[in-house]
Specification:
alpha/beta; Rossmann fold; 3-stranded parallel beta sheet; two-stranded antiparallel sheet; 10 helices; 37% helix
Length: 274
Amino acid sequence: MYPTLSANQTWGKSPFHYLNFAGKSVDWVYEPAERNEYYYHIGKSVSKQKMIQLGWTDKNVKYSFNNENYRSDDFENVKVITAGCSQTFGYGVDESSLWTKKLCDWYGTTHVNLGVPGSDWIAVGKRLSWWIPKLNPEIVCIYAPPTERFSWWAIQNDTEYATSRYGEKAILECTIDDYDSNSDKPRKYPLLLDILDPVNIDYIRNSSMEYIKNVCAHYNTKLFIVRRDEDSPLKLRVRDDLARDLFHYGRKTHTNIFERMKEKIENNELFSGF
């Protein structure tokens, strides 16, 4: 059975449409988890001191969503599309500090951010293939999501799942019946161990990247990608530079990603492959 949801629901829409964030500004994107996490850190002396050093409060991060439920301006007069996972969405970071916002301001265009927490290469490809034909951008800029993530359609629940939602234990408990050649008795085989093997991880990523690259080429859109492991004179990740959740990238790292992406655009370093 194929998914019953329309292409618009599964490809074009932000997952935040389920929370009805369209046109709204909120202090916490995940209630109550994000709020509880903040007050947990404030309640611990070491993490509280870290929050003070970084300048985070319960008031200085606002998540403003456009009419399509993305943390973005409305999709008008678009020249640049940015995409990625939570490090692009800017979880726990004020909008003015996002690499996406800095890039679009530098380019002189509407801030368009298709970043969604938990995204993998498949999710990034789906959103771009939906929005590129509609918005007709000059360039697409991606900060690479974690390579080991992937998503799939859960037939029983008629919804999409992603490995980013689960810990290692839950992934290992996802098993199928398999048979040992020396025995007639079935054994439980952890199916996802094969799928999460580096060979399959590269296969999924490279397939998605070829798809994105071809969509961009078809619509005459330049594609720029900054990898997480990219060698550069500029060290992207700044140690101890953290977002309000004390996990995601902070303001300085966002600035470095912007500078690296800007450098690629200025030098016309188009993505050709990993």
